[in-house]
Write a structure and sequence with these properties.
The protein is mostly helical. The protein folds into three domains: 31-107, Endolytic murein transglycosylase (Dna Ligase, domain 1); 114-196, no CATH class; 213-336, no CATH class. It is 47% helix and 8% strand. It has 14 helices and six strands. Strand 5 (311-314) and strand 6 form a beta hairpin. The N and C termini lie far apart (74 Å).
Length: 339
């Protein structure tokens, strides 16, 4: 190695080290997360610094989990985390975050309640009852949304007269205060829906000459019919293809909503049910959503795949969706998969 090369390396290494230090310092002490509104985060008992850092990073509170772990290590607070529910405001930086979660500045004693994708309002009410809240009060608000509520959340104005909040109760894990009222609970769920539906989504829905209510209704069916997320857009294409030619959707998800059951396949007698929600009997979309869809199903309803499929079934062994283009192919697949 020449002397000149050695000198070059000797000069470059300190510069690189300084650059790395400045980047670490900037991310740890000066850079806030991406929050645009207050965010609630649960620090569970037993969570270590990296687990908490990942939760905070995913929520947009901080710039990265390793920067929080570094700060806690450097300040000797790596094992001083206090379990609880915390509320963080936009613009907060890691030193302040660390002070809050090690100082135990808990927002409230929370009850975590999880609502999975595809649950109905009745399912949610039952879970609220099981966690000490009033399911009946919750359903009263859901089934009879006030004009005040519709004015607060403009996206609800598309609900037809007599419509409910079914479909707009965004599925997620929520942290409710023990004395939270049903108004507060519903409000949190609607706020979550509002945050998930972006302006671009709204614009793209309008560009397709569709409305949000129909999109939510379609998404609620896709959510129940697709076995896996990567199948949702293709399932959506099947239903849109049928709508285009006036073919009935014949979705078991809509019949489940009517009958209150959970079947992969219904009997011929059951498909004769005359509820307007029964898409075996009535063409077009049902009168409203049949579940509360997650963001993947909503995205599939807005941006379906392009396909020539008009039929599908579920392989009972793998739960995968088997698609077909023609009725004859569909019948063959039913025999093949024992349906």
């Amino acid at each position: 190695m020449t002397i000149r090369r050695k000198i070059s390396i000797a000069l470059v290494l300190p510069i690189l080290a300084l650059g790395g230090f400045l980047y670490l310092y900037n991310q740890t002490y000066l850079t806030p997360g991406t929050l645009t509104s207050s965010q609630t985060v649960l620090v569970a008992k037993g969570d270590n610094a990296l687990v908490v850092g990942e939760k905070l990073s995913n929520a947009g509170v901080i710039s990265g989990k390793y920067f929080l772990a570094y700060y806690l290590w450097k300040s000797g607070q790596l094992h001083d985390l206090v379990a609880g529910v915390y509320v963080f405001s936009p613009g907060i930086k890691i030193p302040e975050v660390a002070r809050i979660i090690t100082g135990g500045e808990i927002a409230f004693t929370a009850v975590p309640v999880t609502f999975p994708e595809g649950w109905t309002a009745k399912d949610m009410a039952a879970r609220l009852d099981a966690n000490g809240f009033s399911g009946n009060e919750f359903l009263s608000i859901v089934n009879n949304p006030s004009q005040e509520l519709k004015d607060k959340f403009p996206f609800l104005r598309g609900i037809p007269r007599g419509g409910t909040l079914e479909g707009y109760l965004f599925p997620d894990t929520y942290f409710f205060a023990k004395d939270a009222t049903s108004d507060v609970i519903v409000g949190k769920m609607l706020n979550n829906f509002e945050e998930k539906i972006t302006d671009k989504m709204v614009s793209d829905i309008s560009a397709q000459n569709k409305n949000l209510y129909d999109i939510v209704t379609m998404a609620s069916i896709i959510e129940m019919e697709a076995g896996f997320v990567d199948e949702m857009k293709t399932v959506g294409s099947v239903f849109y293809n049928r709508l285009k030619i006036g073919q009935r959707l014949q979705s078991d998800a809509t019949l489940e909503y009517v009958l209150g059951d959970n079947k992969v396949q219904h009997t011929v007698a059951e498909t004769q049910n005359q509820s307007p929600y029964n898409t075996y009997q009535f063409a077009g979309l049902p009168p409203g959503p049949v579940s509360n869809p997650g963001i993947n199903a909503l995205s599939a309803a807005i941006y379906p795949a392009e396909s020539d499929y008009y039929y599908f079934l579920t392989d009972l062994k793998t739960k995968k969706t088997i698609f077909s283009k023609t009725f004859d192919e569909h019948v063959a697949n039913k025999a093949k998969y024992g349906l």
